[in-house]
Amino acid sequence: MFINATTAGKHDEQRAKSTAAGNLLGDGDHFRFGPTIFSNYAVLPKIGSGDLSKRSSSSAFSILPLGIFGGLDESSLSAYMLAPINSDRYICLDAGTIRYGLKAVLQNDESRRLFPGVQPGDEDQVLQQNIKAYLISHGHLDHTAGMIHNSPNDLRANGSNPSKSIYGIKETIDVIRDHLFNGKAWPNMGNAAPESNPETFQIKTYKYEVLKPNTFPQLIDQTNMKVTVYKLRHVFPVLSSAFLVEQSESSSTAPAILYLGDTGSDEYEYEDKDKTQKSTYMKTLWKQIAEKMMSKAIDLRAVFIEVSYMNSQPTNLLFGHLTPKLLAVELDILRTKLGGGNERLLDNVIIIPTHQKPDKNLITIREEIQKELSLKKYKFYFPQQGAVFYV
Ligand SMILES: [Zn+2]
Ligand SMILES: [Zn+2]
């Protein structure tokens, strides 16, 4: 099942049909190439006719994609603003592209409505006032470059405000501190000394918050959300991570989204360079998510998961990424962990494939996702830069 990323202001008729989270598909699982052009070279398929661009009474989060690709196009690299519905206190999940994404947000009527009084050109205002913290999955540039480039303007509203937090596992924070904000590649905007340059002046626009994997959810500074982090194996020795973000003010089952940074599958990733020990991070992740779903600790609304390559990518050249077939394997593992009739808990979870490259393979990857038999039971949504959607 496929849900369309539509431009605000269109498809009102379809919206009228889409009144609840469980009824998002409009006229069915239709796949066609359409006029959704969001860059000079990429004509993306319009898929299905459901519409998440209109909030419904069951919407729990607003999501603003600032960048959606996994490389090549520096104007649209992984970055997603997320806030509980009715809140203007967002986190940014990865930060590959910030400014170009904010421009797209402020040129989109539906998205701009989230920021009353803000006009196109006021990107700095949203950057400074509405992005309250960054959650970075790993240190690769396609997940960090937007934050780095915009850091000089990511000023606190006034000098007495606290630094903004950058959350990540230790390995991610180490890369940002030692290799990005290290006073050499870029000024030290953080609050810690890089290993190679201990005397560098700390500008402290940001403060580093190391998250311990698999522990209790931690409140996210200046927001109404909390986060649990899980390790992922990108490609040895690079560790990546997944964030489970929950609303922190729910009295019972907390609406939540799961965001995976770059990851390979346990089948093809290893924990040592000699490839003797296979990774187990994905199995661990799905087990823990399934347990939280079954115990009603969370009401999972969406899973952001990377699908970087086509199925034809040789398995020795995956570089710690997934294909449509491997996505199907992963979702089946989650389904199996749920088991015993609990599979229905996945019925309304929106699967958001991320991190494709905007090249000739883009449409093929999306077609392959659509054709994969065991994926037909899921609802997919392909985000569009700048276009708000609700889950
Ligand atoms: Zn990446
Ligand atoms: Zn990466």
Automatic annotation (TrEMBL):
GO MF, any single term: 3',5'-cyclic-GMP phosphodiesterase activity
Entries under InterPro entries matching the protein: Pdiesterase2, RibonucZ/Hydroxyglut_hydro
Superkingdom of source: Eukaryota
Single GO BP term: cAMP catabolic process
Pfam families hit by this protein: PDEase_II
Protein name: 3',5'-cyclic-nucleotide phosphodiesterase
